[in-house]
Amino acid sequence: MFNIIKSTPQSLGPRLGRLCLPGRKAIETPHYLGVTSRGVVPHITQDTFRRDAGINGVYVPLEDFIERAPQKIPPIYEFSPPDGSSPLRRFIALPEETVLVLGARRTPPVLAPAANPNTNTSISVCTAVGFRTLKAEDYAKAAEHLQPDIVVGLGDIPYGRALGSKRIEKATDRQIQWMQDHVALRNSNGKTKGRSKLFAPLSLVSCANQRFYMDCLTEQLGELVSGLAFYNLAPLEDLPAALHSLSRLAFTEPSTPHDILQQISMGIDVFTIPFISAATDAGIALDFTLPAPQITPPDHEHVAPRTLGIDMWLAAHAIDLSPLTKGCKCYACTKHHRAYIQHLLLAKEMLGWILLQIHNHHVLDLFFAGIRQSIALDVFDSERRRFEEVYNAHLPEKTGQGPRVRGYQFKSEGPGEAKKNKAAFTMLDDGKEKIAEARQEDVEVVVDGKGGEGGGSPAA
Questions:
Q1: 207 labelled binding-site residue
Q2: Residue 330 known to bind ligand
């Protein structure tokens, strides 16, 4: 399934690979998976995905579809295509050639409010109707029914919380049990042809601190595990040699391309990258390449770092008829210009964010193609250093309103927080003054009426 084409002699280092699954587009690694919300990449419908996006694989979280389980059976559990194909692929209308990866939680996940959200038999997931518990047994059954190409095993990952020694031991025991139970369920089905590939989740600590789980993976589950899922880089430091040949899928939430390069230098193969959609929502057109462009500054003059993106809310774009990025071949840049896209954003037209999303994913496609070429030519380290010199370390700050916050994007920050979405229409000052005057007149009428009654006027 996964073949390493080129690697370094060291245990940690960039490597080239190819992820091949029957009937799917091969994914040349390092590369990334599109991050979905309820089965689709945000802002991109499936027809646009097929026609104008070059995304070869997507990551789909199960928590997007199980809001009322177990009280009510989710529709996706009851759906079975007559041709025996993947219920999940048919349910979300994903093209046949696209690699489909299923996991339990979104990336990035919404943090659970409870101090200890996971138990020995379940984890806490955030659904459309709030936090619910997902049993390990139910997740394994759902994964086998939905038939994704790759299923990420259930992990006891304490998002946003530090791990103490006792908590590490407990997480290790849980993951051993959950992986063994999942493998036992797969074996009991008796199905081998077309079965999903299983990726084992690794905890947030070094392999030495979860050595019993490592022993389980290398000795008991060796040939039954096809890859590893990382939630931080700690396990890479001392990963057992027996697991080096497995594909490495990262849920490490890189916030900039600099983070991506740093993680590739440690051997990550496939990424999930939330900042692509975050930049799109912010109205930012990504603009970076590898190799980084050559800059020849005048004598003795300092050149400021280039920005990683273009803020499309700036007034300067209102009359700019150039593409988002010079020379870009994506649909947005070949068919439209900056002035039009800014007009769409200001008018809150959905097409504006659709075009930005297409462009931003295309920029990442080219970025990873450049990374793979630099590894093939043995110049990755030098190109990485030059990239860090040429480009700013952070994405531009958000200056526009962006689209309305949707569903799981509502993240409570504490009491007294402001509204996430501003009102679409607001009252003009003239209207406010008239309402205030009318209220004042009503108050005066009431006061006058009470005064007349108490004074015994002829009218009374």
A1: no
A2: yes
